[in-house]
Specification:
A hairpin with a 4-residue loop joins strand 12 and strand 13. Helix 4 packs across helix 5 and helix 5 packs antiparallel against helix 6. About 35% of the residues lie in helices and about 20% in strands. It is an alpha/beta fold and about 525 residues long.
């Protein structure tokens, strides 16, 4: 039986382990080593006094049918629960096939995708739409200026040497300066002119003013084709009843049933190589003793920087590239309040008549806050009393060890509440009922510094025949959850087929079409 070691119990690591055991019988002994005490990575759900927090917000939608089928098989999709059902603590039997959801909480809800930009005390659609509310909020003069700016950008396209060039080509300089420039700097701590255009190619893809206009045409004519629709324009998504961590806890449970083992509090600190093979790994158990085990196959979703640092005999150039790879960390605060100061001026009904947003993007540069999650709208089951309380997630992008990172829980709370009041999100007399802070390291792989030389590092790592790098941090690529899963699908295919080159794994999330059809291995 071959010994397979998987580093990381996030979506990529759990998917790889589950798929490898599900598709084989008795060929592999698979162990997942997770540094933290938790399952799910940045897709875990934190339960604080009965109110649940999603660390960053995870919409379950993919244009890849293999991923959609995988999710649906693991957790059946279910319709929207009614307000009466939520208040009475029950829901209707809406699961396909007639299953009774009251007998099993392991279902995904169909949710409305509502995310808006909060800019100068006004709401704008995200992505920015071309409708009367937008024109009214921007002002007629600014709207005209934005239109001419976009036409100028379309006529005189820039060479895309940076993320700034990428955005201006698609939205024009005026909209870029309003909605992208300051927010991007807030997110990454760098001006967009210093960030590679690769980030936009992987995260924004084909989204532009023209894509928004085409989407509006489809809505007016009634023609809808989600297979060709930009993912940022999708209006519905799936979401586990009790948050994304519920799915990954279930996956971990199924993985163990297949014979897999998960060791928590196990920090992999050494990867021992011999020529083109990984021979063994060393992990530290509970921050104390170290254990070294031989491996036949290593699947890594740990940060590339840490992976290479732990390897022996790495050439100086590749070691320097890995050492210089940057990350952005973040702090998220769960804040329970009795009400918001915002009025629901949309035509979307909500429980308690709160604003309907899942996310609110804070583009104002006068505050540090980056995004606001309203967990009631992700799933009402995330909140103990969704009819009378609002459970917020406040996201701050920062760097590990920075002054903001080192604030105490109480100092962070006071800072956040003061910002919310200055923005008009909370009133002076809003009651703060509870709060909780989470610090997340290496949440966002960044696209500057030595990232420009990452292809050289990838080529070096691909020399190791039994090493497979998967997931967001494992590839230093800002992947969505479905992309992370796809890298693991491809890694398992390679292991089972004996395929040596790994282009198919690294090519996930590099195409403009966002993998609208299943990946065809022979074409990569």
């Amino acid at each position: 039986m071959k010994e397979v070691a998987i580093i990381g119990a996030g979506p990529a690591g759990l998917t790889a382990g589950y798929e490898l055991l599900k598709q084989t019988s008795g060929q592999y002994h698979v162990t997942i080593y997770e540094e933290s005490p938790y399952i799910g990575g940045i897709s875990r759900t934190v339960n604080h006094h009965g109110n649940r927090m999603d660390l960053g917000g995870h919409r379950f939608f993919s244009k890849n049918q293999e991923v959609m089928h995988w999710w649906q098989t693991m957790m059946p999709f279910q319709g929207e629960p009614s307000f009466d059902d939520i208040q009475l603590g029950r829901e209707k039997s809406l699961v396909p096939g007639g299953a009774d959801p009251e007998a099993d909480d392991r279902v995904m809800l169909i949710r409305n995708r509502v995310s808006r930009i909060y800019y100068h005390h006004k709401f704008f659609d995200y992505p920015v739409s071309l409708k009367w509310d937008t024109i009214r909020n921007m002002g007629f003069g600014t709207t005209v200026q934005a239109g001419f700016s976009y036409m100028n950008a379309s006529a005189f396209r820039r060479k895309e040497n940076s993320l700034e060039d990428f955005y201006i080509n698609r939205f024009g300089k005026k909209l870029y300066s309003m909605f992208f420039e300051g927010y991007t700097k807030k997110l990454w701590g760098r001006h967009p002119s210093q960030i590679s255009a690769d980030w936009g190619a992987q995260r924004v893809k084909g989204l532009s003013v023209s894509a928004v206009m085409l989407d509006m045409f489809h809505k007016i004519t009634g023609i809808q084709d989600n297979s060709r629709k930009e993912t940022s324009l999708i209006e519905e998504f799936y979401y586990p009843k009790y948050g994304p961590g519920q799915l990954w806890e279930l996956t971990a449970e199924e993985f163990r049933k297949l014979g897999g083992e998960i060791i928590l509090n196990a920090r992999v600190c050494g990867i021992h190589t011999n020529q083109n093979q990984i021979e063994s790994i060393t992990y530290q158990k509970n921050q104390q003793e170290t254990v070294t085990i031989p491996v036949d196959i290593l699947i890594s979703s740990m940060p590339l920087k840490d992976l290479v640092t732990g390897m022996n005999d790495v050439p100086a150039q590749e070691a320097a590239i890995a050492k210089g790879l940057p990350y952005r960390d973040f702090v998220t605060i769960g804040l329970l309040v009795n009400r918001l100061a915002l009025r629901n001026e949309t035509n979307i009904p909500t429980l308690g008549n709160i604003v309907p947003d899942c996310w609110i993007y804070v583009q104002d540069t006068g505050v540090r806050l980056g995004r606001i999650q309203i967990f009631n709208n992700w799933s009402p089951y995330m909140v103990q009393d969704p009819a009378r309380q609002v459970w917020l997630g406040l996201e701050y992008f920062c760097t590990e060890g920075s002054r903001f990172w080192q604030l105490t829980d109480e100092q962070t709370l006071a800072f956040a509440v003061e910002e919310l009041r200055s923005m008009g999100i909370l009133a002076e007399n809003t009651e703060i009922l509870d709060y909780h802070r989470e610090q997340v390291k290496k949440a966002y792989p960044a696209y500057f510094d030595t990232y420009a030389s990452i292809d050289q590092l990838i080529a070096y790592l691909n020399r190791f025949e039994n090493l497979y790098c998967v997931g967001r941090n494992g590839q230093h690529r800002y992947n969505n959850m479905d992309h992370s899963m796809l890298t693991s699908f491809e890694a398992v295919k390679n292991i089972l087929s004996g395929r040596k080159n790994k282009f198919n794994i690294w090519d996930v999330n590099t195409e403009q079409i966002y993998h609208e059809t299943d990946i065809q291995e022979d074409s990569l």
